[in-house]
């Protein structure tokens, strides 16, 4: 057999080997992470729930999902073991970096425009009094024509 006919098969087998190898590395890293869980660490389940580890057994983990509320989960359901700072930031809203810097982020996009408060002019989106009065007069005239039947368009007939 010629080497050129075997080359596509060799490339295909090599690609499959590389894909399975990376998947096995990810599985081994996840298993190691689950085995290294310690009491009191914060975890995220594969369902997205955050909890604290209370007990670790061979195949199960006892998690405290709320103060005084405990639940037993399979070890395989632990998606990530979080460090203390990240767990406190997510669950309790503690942001120590913000406290250290003293940086305050505004609630709106005013800091992105580069304009100061003095430069911003307010736009009145309300109706003008004159336009409002003329609009109500036009509406009254139209209603009166409709009542008399004078506002018929072409093609409309009076069916009695």
What is the number of E strands?
5
Biggest sheet layout: 5 strands, antiparallel
Q: From N to C, what is the helix and strand string?
A: HEEEEEHHHH
Mean pLDDT: 78
Uncertain residue ranges: none
Spatially, the strands of the biggest sheet line up as 4-3-2-1-5
Search tags:
160 residues; 5-stranded antiparallel β-sheet; 5 helices; alpha+beta
Question: How would you describe this protein?
Answer:
With 160 residues, the protein is of the alpha+beta class. It has five helices and five strands. The chain has helices at 3-35, 84-91, 96-101, 110-113, 129-148, and strands spanning 42-45, 50-56, 60-66, 69-74, 78-82. The protein has a five-stranded antiparallel sheet with strand order 4-3-2-1-5. The longest helix is centred in the first third of the chain and has 33 residues, at 3-35. It is extended and about 95 Å long. The N and C termini lie far apart (95 Å). The model has no long low-confidence stretch (mean pLDDT 78).
Furnish the topology, listing elements before pairings.
Layout: H1 3-35, E1 42-45, E2 50-56, E3 60-66, E4 69-74, E5 78-82, H2 84-91, H3 96-101, H4 110-113, H5 129-148
Antiparallel strand pairs: 1-2, 1-5, 2-3, 3-4
Summarize the structure.
This protein has 160 residues and is α+β, with helices and mostly antiparallel strands. It is built from five helices and five strands, in the order H-E-E-E-E-E-H-H-H-H. 44% of the residues lie in helices and 18% in strands.
């Amino acid at each position: 057999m010629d080497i050129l006919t075997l080359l596509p098969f060799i490339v295909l087998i090599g690609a499959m080997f590389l894909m399975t190898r990376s998947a096995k590395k990810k599985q081994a890293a996840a298993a190691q992470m689950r085995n290294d869980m310690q009491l009191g660490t914060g975890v995220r389940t594969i369902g997205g729930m955050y909890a604290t580890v209370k007990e670790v057994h061979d195949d199960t983990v006892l998690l405290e999902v709320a103060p005084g509320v405990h639940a037993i989960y399979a070890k395989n359901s632990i998606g990530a073991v979080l460090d203390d700072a990240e767990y406190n930031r997510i669950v309790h809203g503690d942001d120590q970096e913000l406290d250290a810097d003293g940086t305050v982020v505004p609630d709106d996009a005013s800091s992105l425009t580069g304009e100061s408060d003095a430069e911003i002019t307010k736009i009145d989106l309300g109706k003008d009094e004159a336009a409002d009065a003329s609009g109500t007069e036009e509406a009254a005239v139209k209603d009166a024509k409709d009542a008399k039947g004078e506002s018929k368009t072409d093609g409309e007939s009076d069916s009695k």
